[in-house]
Structure prediction request, 95 residues.
Amino acid sequence: MKKGDYNVFVRGSSTEVDGVYSKVIVTIDTIKMDEIEIASSVPDVFLVGTCFLDQGTHVVTLSYTNDLYKKGQDRNLFFQAIGFELKNDILKETR
Prediction:
């Protein structure tokens, strides 16, 4: 990846219990992003947020935070992909 600000997206779907869908937190290296709700029963793309990443390889973790089984209803998360969109290039050269 190039150095810069990135929009971070996840693609997935979930089942709801008591009107609440699955919630996830994306962590990139040590950057913990906001918790988002995957509020769709069919695959869709959700913006997680924006973060600054240095050039190179990164470790991405997805945490499912509200798994629930209640009265025969089962909240499930169906994760398909994570995506990164470079918002702007770093144009200044460090000297």
Notes: The domain at 4-89 is CATH 2.60.120.260 (Jelly Rolls). The chain is about 0% helix and 60% strand. The chain has one domain: 4-89. The CA atoms of residues 2 and 45 lie 23 Å apart.
